[in-house]
């Protein structure tokens, strides 16, 4: 398939548990952030975004937290399901231009 | 999902040969991007376009050129492929710029022998 990342950090969680995936971003001036999900053989898929004037945003089963003090972003997935197994990565940008992507974390959901 | 396709999906070529990858979107998006994805690096921007005939370089543009003659098509060309260009290439598009999600194509796996 078209996924890469054989040596990514892996997070293993039990089905039904909550997952927390972390991301350290590089530019303190970045003002817009996105979390993407990438399944094997597919392109990245938008999950949730957050602007720098917010510290928390919730979607369906997902929450993104932004800590600008330490340049840290996290993605929380509630009641993790087998279909959540994928590589997750964050992206940061300034004024919505030229996103910089993190290397990603592989989420493995155990039955 | 936005209608973004890439062709070919897989290609094996030899060092020194020219290669062109095509990205086609049916969403009338103004902005289009080419990325490469390699282990340990995440997605890195090669080139982007902010309109027909308007393109600019990204982080890793050396050895690549692009063209955008129509809104829906964005071509990436490797004039003389090298083994370091073996990668998975993704195209993306977005309508506006500034807090807009990018829609990605399915990717092209390119192997340069």
Strand content of chain A: over 45%
What is the molecular shape of chain B? globular
| Rg of chain B, Å, rounded | 13 Å
Gap from first CA to last CA of chain B: 34 Å
Uncertain stretches of chain B? none
* Shape type of chain A: globular
Beta-strand fraction estimate of chain B: over 45%
Low-confidence stretches of chain A: 1-5
Give me the secondary-structure category of chain B.
mainly beta
Order of helices and strands of chain A: EEEEEEEEEE
In percent, how helical is the residue content of chain B? under 10%
What is the C-alpha radius of gyration of chain A, as a whole number of Å?
13 Å
Number of strands of chain B: 11
Please state the oligomeric state of the protein chains shown: heterodimer
Explain the overall architecture.
The complex is a heterodimer of chains A (111) and B (113). Chain A is an all-beta fold and 111 residues long. Helix content of chain A is 0%, strand content 54%. In chain A, strands 1, 3, 4, 8, 9 and 10 form a 6-stranded mixed β-sheet that branches. Chain A starts with 9 loop residues before the first strand and ends with a strand. With 113 residues, chain B is mostly beta strands. In chain B, strands 2, 4, 5, 6, 9, 10 and 11 form a 7-stranded mixed β-sheet that branches. In chain B, strands 1-3-8-7 form a 4-stranded antiparallel β-sheet, with no helix packed on it. The A-B interface holds A 2-8, 32, 34, 41-46, 49, 51, 89, 91, 95-99, 101-104 and B 1, 4, 9, 35, 37-45, 48, 58-59, 88, 90, 92, 96-109.
Quick description:
By secondary structure, chain A is mainly beta. Chain A has no helices and ten strands. Chain B has strands at 4-7, 10-13, 19-25, 31-38, 42-51, 54-57, 64-70, 73-78, 87-94, 103-104, 108-112.
């Amino acid at each position: 398939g078209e996924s890469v990342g054989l040596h990514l950090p892996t997070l293993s969680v039990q089905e039904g548990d909550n997952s927390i995936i972390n991301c350290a971003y590089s530019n303190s001036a970045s003002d817009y952030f996105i979390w993407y999900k990438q399944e094997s053989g597919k392109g990245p898929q938008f999950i949730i975004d957050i602007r720098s004037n917010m510290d928390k945003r919730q979607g369906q089963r997902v929450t993104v937290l932004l800590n600008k003090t330490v340049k840290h972003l996290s993605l929380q997935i509630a009641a993790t399901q087998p279909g959540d197994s994928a590589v997750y990565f964050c992206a940061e940008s300034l004024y919505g231009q030229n996103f910089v992507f993190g290397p990603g974390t592989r989420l493995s959901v155990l039955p | 999902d936005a209608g973004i396709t890439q062709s070919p999906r897989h290609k094996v070529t030899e060092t020194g040969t020219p290669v062109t990858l095509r990205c086609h979107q049916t969403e009338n998006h103004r902005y289009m991007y080419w990325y490469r994805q390699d282990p340990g690096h995440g997605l890195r921007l090669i080139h982007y376009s902010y309109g027909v005939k308007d393109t600019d370089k990204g982080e890793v543009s050396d050895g690549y050129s692009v063209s955008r003659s129509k809104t829906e098509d964005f071509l990436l060309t490797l004039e003389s492929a090298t083994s370091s260009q073996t990668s998975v290439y993704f195209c993306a598009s977005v309508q506006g710029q500034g807090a807009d999600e990018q829609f990605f194509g399915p990717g092209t796996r390119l192997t340069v022998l």
